[in-house]
Amino acid sequence: MPDISQFFPITAPTLIFFVVLCIILFAPIIMGKLRIPHIVGMVLAGVIVGPHGFNILAKDSSFDLFGHVGLYYIMFLAGLEMNMSNFRKNRLRTFTHGIMAFVIPMAMGFVFNTAVLKYSFLTSVLLASMYASHTLIAYPTILRYGLSNQRSVTIAVGATAITDTLTLLVLAIVGGMFKGEITSSFWIMLFLKIAVVFFIIIFYFPRIAQYFFQRYEDNVTQFIFVLAMTFLGSVMMEMIGMEGLLGAFLTGLVLNRYVPNISPLMTHLEFVGNAIFIPYFLIGVGMLVNVKILFGGLGTLEVAAVMIVVALSSKWIASLFTQKLFGMRAIERELIYGLSNAQAGATLAAVLVGYNLILPNGQRLLNDDVLNGTIILILVTCIFSSFTTERAAKKIALETKSSLPKDETADDEKIMIPMRYPETAENLIKMASLMRNRKLNRGVVALNVVYDDDNRLMYQERGRQLLEHITKVANYSGMMVQTQVRIATNISNGIKHAFMEFNASELIMGMHIRQEVSKKFWGEFIQSIFSGLNRQITIVQCLTPLNTLRRIQVAVPSRAEYEPGFYRWLERLSRMAENLECRIQFHAKHETLSLINEYIQNRHPSVRAEYTYMAHWNELPGLADNVNEDHMFVVITARKGTISYKNALERLPEEITRYFAGKSLMIIFPDQYGEPLGAMTYAEPQHHEQPSAYEVLLTWVRKKFKI
């Protein structure tokens, strides 16, 4: 047999990367066949190919680089995916569990370290802090099952930030004591530096992000920007002696509202992390494990056994305490426990700091037994965490699926988006993505209608190119798109024909933007469309990126609750506010506000809604003063002849032009029963917008009296 050992370990960077990619590709497939969590497969693969296994790969600098990036990426995604509404609602539970998950392991660890392992005071404290920290190693499992909005996940993720912060503080204090840095000013400087960095990240990072996102909408540019901000936060934490993973988590939290879960940017971030960075980190953790030390002596095994028992049992007690105190279900406790018992990032940092601290007698603060025991602890807790989280997540996912409301599946939702201008098409697709029911996953219809004239071939090709681009944008968000370029002698009739053929439920359209085409407010076609269709029509003018909106203000006319489309537009706006995690403020009469509040509390309790009494529709212009550049102003209007229609709505074009110029707008015509007033057949000629008698009279009065 030829001796192939001479070819190992592989040191060529290209070949190392190829082998790692093969592991990332095949480990989940093999683990899936064996019913073992994918994360465990990555760690075990690292054990096998590492220097302490078959020595197939050399642990070069790429594992250090990608390993650090992967660990920070896990923490960053945890902050980015966190539902901030749930976090605010569960902040007491989160804080309580975070303190318990730190105090209980610290207390148990100190007792066992001194009584069983016979370690000194400082060694016992540092070793106990390792039990207290935890890493969200199983968080990709949560993402795979779509459970990031569960309160148990929110509690575990928030508690991670608390426990790791306190652990790193202990680490900084112990390190400072051995370096002789513990003076009267040490504590002041330590907390001052932490406060300054926290202030910069919390106060300035969101403002920088808002400025950037308002000016650059390219997906690649935004992706690089978000990564740069993440590692800037990590570097700042490292500069003050803390671990960078805390900076990554905090950056994820403050950028949370600027990266909606359903946006293409979030899809890119999750894809790159789950495809490269996080698997690289997991394989690197496995390469640290030295299986041979299990047979090297009882000292390592004894230390590892104590560490594993204390770490697993103390986290379970903390999870049980949180469950019983707040009356949570057992499956929620299991999920919290699964997420919070894996040791990796802060644990490695603590053991390496302790291993490099030399006592006056020449011995290390943490000896070889502790170092080797820590590696075993990391392997065991990562595997245990993966199995526990996988089991609990699967149960909760099945429960969630079986408890869906019946009306979710009965929804007739099928959104059609007529698009003409490339500069507004992307925003319309993003708007539909924010409003659609993701549980139904029915996709949208993108429509481009061109005139049947001598230039139709040229405009057909432009339409196809536009729809191809829009399809890519939609696919980034995981949204299916049906497209059609339609030729018609009449644009509005072409849209109405397509609406009937696709059996669409509603339209989302861009507001008229080009004055050289038509100087009328509604443009050439929109009035004909909302006069000729009895389904919901949403007209949008978005002057700021949707992910930077902080508030949606909605003006609702009296008696709007009697319209058949009342709950459709309310559902769409609620989903939009929920996905953007922004506030929504309704201006209406008390009866209408009461029904809106009841609906949101029952269907979307996480939405931060506010309710303001508006006595009369004449107060509409006065709302303009409170609509800022990062607000979306929504007007719920009505067609003539409907219950909520009033003559004051005829002034809407003039009032919007006069008072709301330069603001992001949305005008919604709700569903109505039967045929719309003045409906036309498809053979009738194009409808042209004509001024009402009221407008003619008002214009005459203004000219006559020079108002």
Automatic annotation (TrEMBL):
| InterPro entries in UniProt | Cation/H_exchanger_TM, Na+/solute_symporter_sf
Q: Where are the transmembrane segments?
A: 6-27, 39-57, 63-82, 94-115, 121-143, 155-178, 184-204, 216-233, 271-289, 295-314, 335-358, 370-388
Xref: SUPFAM superfamilies: Adenine nucleotide alpha hydrolases-like (SSF52402)
Q: What is its main location?
A: membrane
Q: Where in the cell is it found?
A: Membrane
| Pfam families in alphabetical order | Na_H_Exchanger (PF00999)
State the annotated membrane topology for this chain.
Multi-pass membrane protein
Listed name of the protein:
Sodium:proton antiporter
Q: Which organism is it from?
A: Xylanibacter rarus
